Amino acid sequence: MPVLSPPTPAPSPRLSAFSLSSIIDRISESDPAHVSRREFAGLSPPVRLQYLAALLSDCTPSELLFVSTTISPLLRRDLLRDLPPEISLHILSYLDDPQALARASRVSKSWNRLLNDQWLWRRMCYIHGYALEQDGHAEAHRGRRVSARHSGIEGCTSNMHTASVRPRHMRLIRSPYSSSAMNWMHGGKLLRTHRIPLVSTSQALVAPRNPADEPAAAPASAIPTSIALDDAWLVVGLANSRIHVFSAKTGVLSRTLVGHESGVWAVALPNALVVSGGCDKELRVWDVKSGYCIHTLRGHTSTIRCLRVLHGRPVAVSGSRDRTLRVWDIQRGRLLRVLEGHEQSVRCLDICGSRVVSGSYDTTCRLWDVDTGACLHVLRGHFNQIYSVAFDGVRVASGGLDTTVRVWDAATGTCLALLQGHTALVCQLQLSPTMLATGGSDGRVIIFALGASYQIVQRLAAHDSSVTGLQLDDRFLVTSGNDGRARLYRFAGEGGTGEYVPVRDLSESSDSVWKVAYMRETCVVMCKRAGKTVLEIWSFKPDDDS
């Protein structure tokens, strides 16, 4: 019996030669074997597609590969070349590395022309802290450089939008401020990592004790409750009644202030003084250099929950669970006046000039004149406890347990805006000249534009749990959360408009971050890590200034 070949799958249907020839015949009766490019260009789109399909069906695999390789470059589009120049420049503005810009300029002639735009390089100079100076006028321009730190890009390079070739008498200079900004972006120097002591150290104002003579303090007692930071000192108040003073320049523990009988809930650092208050109802004034307690001020009948010191004046304002605010002369150590009106605990304070705003569990904010003690406005609108306030002299912002933020006119006391977006307690607020930043227990940070509309500029899913710290300026936004992260964002914009772009985590992951605070060249992260209270002090000073 003959052996038959096994059946093979039927080939895919293809246009026959008769079909192809019939198409060609219909296209050109004069030359059925060939259609010129001119004739093909004159065909209607459906017929062109039909002809191409018939032609490709007769190609071999190698021919199809050749066609695919030839077509692939033709299908690519240069978006930067095809888009309007304004949009292309906006896309390129997200590059913050000058080497990346230089490499991009070598991609094509069109990219090179686009990247020769002076605005891109002027912005790059601003980001990296370069400014143009004339050799003979360095002193005259030094003040201009300093003002550029606050005014933005226009104060940085006033002559860069002229010719692309710089005159010989112009030179680029770099300020220490710009170097610190780069250190923030790429990582600074960890000065010290402290495990906050549970008992007094040998530098305390009392004699050191043998740890065996008394039981160890509970771990919860070392939780940081408050922080104050300036160029020279870092002051940390703890729930175990201690106040630790660190050098902001070296990170070394300078001394421990002992005197409070229970937890310290508020600290302030006006010049060379430390002002503190807490659960023992006392306000204490310390000399930061010697650690000596200058004054012990009594008057509150319950825990002092918040504290502020007027700028440039030896006057402190404290808020307490006894429903009152008290104004103190911390230089002479005496009570000036009592501000009464709240019906429940005073939870938060903020000060601008000689006026103070207080937020209370009675769901109201009050605006006071510190010098007279008069209540200027009662701000009503929240329907639950208020936990945070911010005041810039023009407007008052308040947030609380009702998940909303309200903005008030400080002059008239009227509500300017009701801001929504959080789904839990609003516990952090900060005002800048152009923006309002809010942080909530939902882990979100929301940036609102200040103006007639108070529109949401940006929503950040900053943390997986409650936001515990929030601070921003014209360069950066720093946040911390109970998820154990402290995060850095960079402001990408000009003239106060723009968004914050995530840069990196400021510290390694921990169980929880309790507090974060920073100044231009110093950052402090206080966290719980491996069951211990840890305080990290970072320096972002330029290398030649470290």
TrEMBL record:
In terms of Gene3D superfamilies, this protein maps to:
1.20.1280.50, YVTN repeat-like/Quinoprotein amine dehydrogenase
The record's annotation in Pfam families points to: F-box-like (PF12937), WD40 (PF00400)
Q: Which PROSITE patterns match?
A: FBOX, WD_REPEATS_1, WD_REPEATS_2, WD_REPEATS_REGION
Q: Name one GO molecular function term.
A: ubiquitin binding
Which residues are in the F-box domain?
77-124
Q: Which UniProt keywords apply?
A: Repeat, WD repeat
Q: Name one GO cellular component term.
A: cytoplasm
- Entry's transmembrane regions: none
GO BP annotation list: proteasome-mediated ubiquitin-dependent protein catabolic process; ubiquitin recycling
Q: Which domain of life is it from?
A: Eukaryota
Under the heading CDD domains, the entry gives: WD40
Spell out the residue ranges that the record assigns to WD repeats: 257-296, 297-338, 339-378, 379-418
> Protein name, please?
F-box domain-containing protein
